[in-house]
Amino acid sequence: MFKAKANGITKEVIRLECESVIPTLKAKIIMTLSNLIQQSSDRAEFVKFCKRVEYTIRAWYLLQFEDLMQLFSLFDPVYGAQKLQQQNLTPAEIDVLEQNFLTYLFQVMDKSNFKIVSNEEIDVATAGQYLLNLPITVDESKIDKSLLRKYFADHPQDNLPDFADKYVIFRRGIGIDRTTNFFYLEKVDLIIASIWARLMKRIRLDKIFGKTGRARKKVPTKDEDISEELYVERIRLEKMELSFQNLVTKTTIQEPTFERIIVVYRKSSGGPEKDRGIHVKHFKNIPMADLEIVLPEKKNPGLTPMDWVTFIASAVVGLVAVITSLEMPKADLWVIFAILSTVVGYCAKTYLTFEANMAAYQNLITQSMYEKQLDSGRGTLLHLCDDVIQQEVKEVIIAFFVLMEQGKATSKELDQRCEDLLREEFGESCNFDVDDALAKLEKLKVVNKDPTGKYACVGLARANEIIGVTTEEVVLKAKESTLEC
Fold first, then answer.
1. What are phi and psi of 270, to 5 degrees?
2. In sequence order, which ranges of 279-410 are alpha helices (DSSP H)?
3. pLDDT tens, 451-460?
4. Half-sphere exposure of residue 115, counting CA atoms within 13 Å on the CB side?
């Protein structure tokens, strides 16, 4: 994240990472690429090739996905305990099985291009506020710490977040969320806070009761053009110049979103029986600044210690000011009234702001449950398994098409050509995973590498012969024969 200047105005900008996921639907890719082939016979062969690639890749992953689903059935938070009891396994054997499940799960997450949220990304995400304005924390006493701690001890990774021993947040894809509203309470809150800050500064109490927060890295400034493909602006009320004039006008705020979020954790055991259930929850379109809404086992928010200190300090300062005014030879009632009004107003503002934020928090939690949460448990795993297959198929099809149409290429050249194709034909920018695509093509035996390091593909008809007739094609042909009879 950095600040950029445009037309003399400083803007808060977040740099977005170019990801490997291909968002375009597989059917659209096949249709578009086949239409680029001139010969109709080749188009038919290409469509057949695409189907055989998908059937073959699906078969490759079938056993791995079956193992994943069978293992999860033992750790399903709802029915897993019953199945574990039927297996008569020892605690040590269960420990091995749950670590095997996590190993399979993390492999699938990696294949689906999900990445673990790092501390740096958490800092950027929580550096501002969007719709959630309450400090949300996790009740760590309700979350198990041994499951993930053991996994990462056996499978160390770089840039793990501080909470990785308790829960893991995976993210994929970046979007933008915009909200347009009057934001009356939020604007009034900011205006009153600004007035109060000036008052505290005037009486030199700002250093004592000023807000403190976690130290963050200094944000650099960039005076250059910003590419829309790599950066997105974060528009917040806190950075706007608010006044009583624009208090009654609608305002649009903007925040980058994580298109997909998956949270993995296990609850701590409250009784003698150890809870073996592993929770896997899937969310969509979560604003970065509101990432806290996906946290597991959240504590009920309340006034922070700093709010209470400010609240009490305001009352004490007001009381001292009133007593001092009354002890003067000529007490000015208007001054006393102004002081009392300011103190009472600020205290009321603190309480009403908390109540408004609490209502907004409850609304966001409800929304996340009914609108933002896509699935959980088995449904999430099934979605991930299918997602892996779809991504792998799209990578293989695109790489083969580029080699077929544009000729030999090195790995680096093929990578660039595939990214150019996605950008020109589908308007998508991504970091194409050329190594994985070539590995699959070599496994299918439809590409060859010459001594100079360049890859070339076989002809379409030959590629279909090499892959051969798949089981799915036999079943479909038998089904068609049955219908004809």
1. -95, -10
2. 305-327, 333-367, 378-406
3. 999 999 999 9
4. 17
Nearest one of 214, 185, 238, 205 to 312, comparing CA atoms: 205
CB atoms within 10 A of CB 169: 26
**Tokens 């020892």 label which residue?**
90
Residue type, 83: K
**What three-state secondary structure class fits 171?**
strand
For residues 179-205, b (16+ Cβ closer than 10 Å) or e, as one string?
eeeebebbbbbbebbeebeebbeeeee
pTM above 0.90, yes or no: no
| Partner residues linked to 267 by β-bridges | 143
| pLDDT per position as a tens digit, 320-336 | 665 666 566 655 666 66
Q: How many Cβ atoms sit within 10 Å of the Cβ of residue 22?
A: 22
Which of 155, 50, 37, 40 lies closest to 390 in space, CA to CA?
Answer: 50
Sequence-distant (≥ 6) Cβ neighbours of residue 219 within 8 angstroms: 1, 2, 3
Closest CA to 290 of 234, 356, 206: 234
